[in-house]
Amino acid sequence: MVINSTFILIKIRNVINTIVFRFSCAFRKNVKLHTGLRINKLPSINVHKKALLVICDNVLLNSSNYSYHINMHSKVKIMCDVEGAEIHIGKNTRIHGSCIHAFKRIIIGNDCLIAANCQIFDSNGHNSSPNERRISNGTAKEIKIGDNVWIGANSIILPGVSIGANSIIAAGSVVNKSIPAEHIAGGNPAKLIKRIDE
Question: Is pTM, for the whole model, over 0.85?
């Protein structure tokens, strides 16, 4: 009975959080929320007034450890905090306790699974030059993640990477080069392991 009561209370909390999140974005023309969005604990969202965030149908933003099978270190964080930055999240995609930070453009396809504690950012944050390191945002390069991609927990997707449809990134990987469709890749740096149909 206690378990059922807890479950019901969490469901109610998630519905309220979704309503609060939608209301907080309702008057922002640069944040476009489609139908069916689900929020498990409120995420952290930072969108510049001249940036764009698009979240398509039936997306889940999960910041709750309650029913997730591995531990999350923090809540979902989505940042387009510079002018002209864009993040597009495709329909039916699920994001768990991960950070997505665009200086230019990050496109995440439909039906993707992004596990806990992943970091996806399209700029290194600073230039490598010692003279410019403290004042620069570095060079941004678009990231594109295809449909039905599964990114394992604690992975890092670096600037300029493209991941083809249906591919899997093994947990704990650092992806610094593009991965073709229908492949499993993993490691630091990530390397192709095999085709999914092998």
Answer: yes
